Amino acid sequence: MPESMDRLLPVDDASWGLEAYVSRGGYAAARQALTSMAPADVIAEVCRAVLRGRGGAGFPAGTKWGFVPQNVSGPKYLCVNADEGEPGTFKDRLILLRAPHALIEGIVIAAFAVGIPKAFIYVRGEYALISERLEAAIAEARAAGYLGPRVLGTDFGLEIVAHHGAGAYICGEETALLESLEGRRGQPRVKPPFPAVVGLFRSPTVINNVETLAAVPQIIGRGAGWFLGRGLAKDGGTRLFSVSGAVRRPGVYELPVGTPLREIIEVHAGGPPEGRRIKAVVPGGLSAPVLKPEELDLPMDFDSLAKAGSMLGSAGIIVIADGTPILDVLHVTARFYAHESCGKCTPCRIGTAWILKVVERLRRSGGGPADLDLVVRLAGGIKGRTLCPLGDAAALPIQALVTKFRSELEQAVAR
Amino acid sequence: MSYAPSPAALRRIEATIALYPEKGAAILPVLHIIQGESGFVPEEAESWVAGRLAVPPVRVREVLSFYTMFKRAPGGRHSLLVCRNLSCTLAGAEDILGFIFETLGVRPGETTPDGAITVFAVECLGNCDHAPCLQADGADHGPATRASVAALIEELRADA
User: Which of A81, A90, A247 to mutate: most B Cβ within 10 Å?
Assistant: First the structure.
């Protein structure tokens, strides 16, 4: 595979099509996998690359593929999570727009490795126009024999269907995504059984994020060692870091896993605008507990962020500058989770609604510092008591905002 | 009153159903097709969908009432979504919503009296490097300023 495939995202918007992708070395990895590798060898190679789930959970993709039982008859499915909804995250949008064939090639390789004949791409409803390009790329790939009953002339067949959601953050959670794809409300399932065994239409199912799958051609084409060497020993490859908020150059930056947060913000995104200073940073999408300016020298990988009490999540970095009241940040955060709680688990449904009520009262200056304790206590009542990660995703950032900016918030509400 | 999709929509619906191993899985895409044609999902369409997909009518209602993008009542000819999650709030989303209220006299969820535009305040649109961002009939707009939103509103109004 040529070096031109070393970057996942082309810098321009014009070379998304099949011809441009193939001319920079695209589909060579799929050909290599399908014509010269056994499925188990493909899984082993992805395991060696330590490709961790880029949707936010960080689970190793190769291990996940290995969980699918191979001795059962009946259908198996691959679901691609393109329900990018984590606030501050817009990297999958760019893959769908600029590198749809990298995703399709990754799907071909993953489906071959696990023995899956049908894949669904769950695209968030708000990306319907973006999905038109993805669907055009799928049609190109099918016409050229990269999809269809005989992929690349082999006996392996694969069809891909793009499926559109309809506006629900919860559907990014993998079992809620399955419910939604089956035509139901997006509410999480009880695990176990895990989707690898009982997933879509009660069949064994692999669910991977867009960015995770789009990295697979690099691993097969350049080798697991090369991929691993670009990142860290326990977290291989590069990540697409979305940077927004108070920076001079907001955008998506493709950098090695483990790049220091401060470097991403100051060097790549240009730092805060003239005359402003960083007050706080959300490092991994809105669900990630906030960091203070003195915590920005962290390497951006799953383990380092977890050790620091936050999370890398979807690698969506939101920079908050001085002059922004933390009470406003708390309000936006509380409103989001109250709106997006699916309602299935009582602690999350009731807890997020009460947190929002208390925060709204604080903003109307009808409360006092004791209400800050109430917010922390309500969040504690959600944490660890829900079926899916949305509960923790709501509780942890709210607790971090109140705890780390306690004195500012006390001043703001003591009126 | 009974509901029937146009022949073109019906062909798309039949092709969509064929993509899924179970007909019920086509509920969301079929509702998208109906809403795309009618602007919203009329109540009579719910039983039509239930019948065509062989699911109980309550399954259709459950789905319709869960997902924010489905509309059960007619709105304006155009939809204007204003993101107000964190990145957009930091970039002035509340000012954009205030400007829209000054200009159109409507708050989120309301439709202009001439039936041209329905305004919605929404959560993250995944376009945070273009904050504050909006979507007009599904097309992305941003980074928005008062001037760019004024021009966008003129465009939508002119397009009957």
Answer: A90
